[in-house]
Write a structure and sequence with these properties.
By secondary structure, the protein is of the alpha/beta class. Helices cover 45% and strands 14% of the residues. InterPro entries: HAD-like_hydrolase_sf, HAD-like_sf, HAD_2, HAD_sf, PGP-like_dom2.
C-alpha cells in the first residue's frame, strides 16, 4: 500500500511512534486493562463495569490524562490517577513475562536501517518507564539514539515532543513514522515527511489524512528508504 504525491527525500533520521507502529500494543495493554479495573473495584475507587476494549484502543496515541478522562469521565481524579499507576505497573510486570509482541519485521528493519546509517529515535505520548520498558524488553532499545516520551519531558503535545527532539539532536530532515493523527500533526507542524502506518487499525478512516505516504507493512520502510532521493 502506498499513497504518495511526491518523491521522498532520503532522511538523516527516522522518528517512530511506539504503540501501533513498532509495538502491538493490544498484546500487552488489554490483559493489564482488565486487571486494572478489577483492582479499581477491589479498592472501591471505581465500581462500574469495565468499559469496552475498543474504548481504550481508540484512545491510543493520546496523552494518558486525556485517555482516562475519555474512558471513565465520571470517575474521580483519584480513580483516574490510580488507574494510571495500576496500568503502568501491570504492563511492566507483564513485559517481564514476554507475552507481548512487536509488529512483524520491526527488529529486522530497524537493524538494517541502523546499519545503513539512519539515525533512529522514538517519540511517544506514553510514560517513560513504559516506552523504554517496551523497547528494552523487545531488544530494540540499543538501536535508538534516544527515546523520547511525553511522560519524561512533560510535553503538552507530540508536536512539542518532536520539536524538542529535532532541536536537541540538530536534525533537519527526518521521517516521522506513526499510526495516529497526532503523528501526522507532529511531523507536518515540524516541517518533516510523514510515513503513515496503516496496519494497526486503532484509529478511524481519516486518522492518517495528510501523511506523505502510507505503508501496510513495517518492512516497506526499507524499500521507501532505498527509493528515496
Amino acid at each position: 500500500m502506498e499513497r504518495t504525491q511526491n518523491k521522498l527525500t532520503k532522511p538523516e533520521a527516522m522518528i517512530f511512534d511506539m504503540d501501533g507502529t513498532l509495538f502491538m500494543t493490544e498484546t500487552l495493554l488489554l490483559p493489564a486493562y482488565h486487571r486494572t479495573f478489577e483492582r479499581l473495584r477491589e479498592e472501591k475507587l471505581y465500581m462500574g463495569e469495565t468499559p469496552p476494549e475498543q474504548a481504550v484502543l481508540s484512545c491510543l496515541g493520546m496523552l494518558l490524562d486525556d485517555i482516562w478522562r475519555k474512558i471513565i469521565p465520571d470517575a474521580s481524579e483519584a480513580a483516574r490517577q490510580r488507574a494510571n499507576e495500576l496500568l503502568l505497573e501491570l504492563q511492566l510486570e507483564d513485559l517481564k513475562q514476554h507475552h507481548s509482541k512487536l509488529y512483524p519485521g520491526v527488529l529486522e528493519t530497524l537493524t538494517e536501517l541502523n546499519r545503513r546509517g539512519v539515525r533512529l529515535f522514538v517519540a511517544s505520548n506514553g510514560l517513560e518507564h513504559y516506552v523504554k520498558g517496551v523497547a528494552r524488553a523487545h531488544q530494540i532499545f540499543p538501536l535508538f539514539e534516544a527515546v523520547y516520551s511525553a511522560g519524561e519531558y512533560e510535553t503538552a503535545s507530540k508536536v512539542d515532543l518532536v520539536k524538542l527532539l529535532l532541536d536537541q539532536h540538530k536534525i533537519h530532515n527526518a521521517w516521522m513514522v506513526g499510526d495516529r493523527s497526532s503523528d501526522v500533526e507532529a511531523g507536518k507542524k515540524n516541517g518533516q515527511t510523514v510515513v503513515g502506518c496503516a496496519y494497526a487499525g486503532f484509529g478511524n478512516g481519516q486518522e492518517l489524512d495528510g501523511a506523505d505516504v502510507l505503508i501496510a507493512d513495517f518492512k516497506e520502510l526499507l524499500k521507501l528508504y532505498d527509493e528515496a532521493e
